[in-house]
Amino acid sequence: MDMRTPLGKVRGLGSAKSGTEHFWRVRTTAVALVPLLLFYIVFLIAYGGRPYAEVVGALANPFVATINGLTVIASIIHMRLGMEEIIQDYIHSEITKIVLLILNAFFSLAVGGLCLFAVLKIAFAG
Question: Which ranges does the record mark as transmembrane (predicted)?
Answer without folding.
Answer: 30-49, 55-77, 98-124
